[in-house]
Structure formats: C-alpha cells, structure tokens
Amino acid sequence: MSIHFLRHAYACIALLLCSAAAHAADQQQHILWSLQGKTNKIYLLGSMHLLKESEQLPVAIDSAYADADALLMELDMDDLDPLQMQQAALELAMQPEGRTLQQQLGPKIYEQFVAKTRALGVEPAMLERFQPWFAAITLVQLQLMKLGFDPEAGVEKRLTRRAAGDGKKIQGLESVREQLEIMARLPEKQQREFLLYSVNDAERMATEVDALLASWRSGNVAAMAKLLQEGFYEYPDLYRPLTVERNRKWLPQIEQLLDDREDYLVVVGALHLVGKEGVIDLLERKGYKVRQL
Asked: Phi and psi dihedrals of 290, rounded to 5?
C-alpha cells in the first residue's frame, strides 16, 4: 500500500503512456535524472504506481534499470510482509471503540459517501469502522481500478519482478507503517475534507490523470510542478507531510549512495522529484549537478 492521495494520489497512482505513443515519448525527455557520484552513477525516476497492463515502459526507463546494480524505492518492495502490512493498517486506520464513520462524518457527507461507495460496488458498512482517511484511500484506489489501472502493473511492481529475476537487490526509503502514520496523524477536520474531496471529485479523476500523463510523457517538469503547487495551495496541511517532509527525510539516504561503488536506480512518486523542495531541487541546492534524461 502506498500513500499518495488527492491530486498527489492521481499523480502517483496513475498511468504511463499508452503503448502506441511509446516511440514518440522516447524522443523527448522524461521524469528521469542522472547524478554522478564519486565512483558510481545514480538515476532518479519519477514513478507512476498504477498502470494498465498493456502499457509499456519507455526505453529510457529500461536503460536506466539495465545500467543499475541495485534499486532504492519508497518501500523495500521485495521484502514486504502482507501480514505486517495488514496489521499496521488495522492498528492505524480503525475507529476507536464505539465510534463509527457515520457519526464522524455527519448525515450530509455520509449520504454522499454511501452513494459513491455503492456506485463503486462496495457496501458502506465494510468501511464503517475505519477512519475517514482510510475510507478516502479506498475510494481513490477503487475509482482508479474502475478506470482500468492495476497496482500490479505499476512501475515499482514491474521493476521488482525484474529485479527478482535478475538478482538485483532493492532497498526501501521508509516502512509501510511510516507511510500510513502520515495520514493517521492528520487532524479530524483534514480527514473529513480529504474524504469529501474523494467523493465529490472522483469523476474528475480521469481528467486529472490525463493532465498528469501528458506532463509525465513529455518530461514537462514545469507542468508537473504546477500540479503539485495547486495541491499545496488547496491542501497545505496534507501536502506538506506527504511531499516536502518526506523529500527532506529521504535526501541523506540518497546522498549516501553517492559514496557507493554500485550504480543505483532510485524510484519514487513523480511529484517527489519536481518543484520547489522536490528531491531534484534539494540536491541542486547542495551543489549536486543533476541531469534530466
């Protein structure tokens, strides 16, 4: 499970280009950078976490993967324990004893929530004991899957399967619990706003994803940064812990790779790399020369 929501959800749980456009995309830049270490090279790839199964990765990503000896992702994807993931989700997402989602949301918002969940083929009672942030995540992911996107076909999943076959190690920048705690720490007001946004704006998701895809496909960093900035403007209390705080936390771990002899492919959600206080910006501020591919 990965924590990417609102426009950030659409950005980081989204599709890559359609296979028919793959050749054209590879004539342009990508959300992919390279950084020269003392004795090695680091690639930084902006990922999309859900794809359609039929879609192909651009050749530039294949080349960066082939050149890398090891991978660094948001999570250590080849060592995830499903039972530990489930336990962490239950511990952090459940309502306190005696409290329900309906009580927390109030009649008007809950009525909208019921209509949306049923439209997606889920009975609201299944989410009644969960916190609003978890219910919102569920709606976002169900809507994306309804549009045809599959987490098993996402960039990380594809690269993880290849790495297993090639014997390439994968390391993680953070744990599943750390990701979930970001949302679990949100004040109740922000959680309700998040759920209401997920209910009311779900129909805009296809448009949001299309806009993101066009920027990602062409390597248009400015356009992607604009999408991120819009999210910051509307939901600063959500976006700050989801992006900036995590970017800063990840930076020392990425810098440590520059002292290694192995080449690495770092794979994180696309919006973590662009804009002010994105990973690329933070690296450049420290004097590193990062080249977009």
From this structure: -110, 130
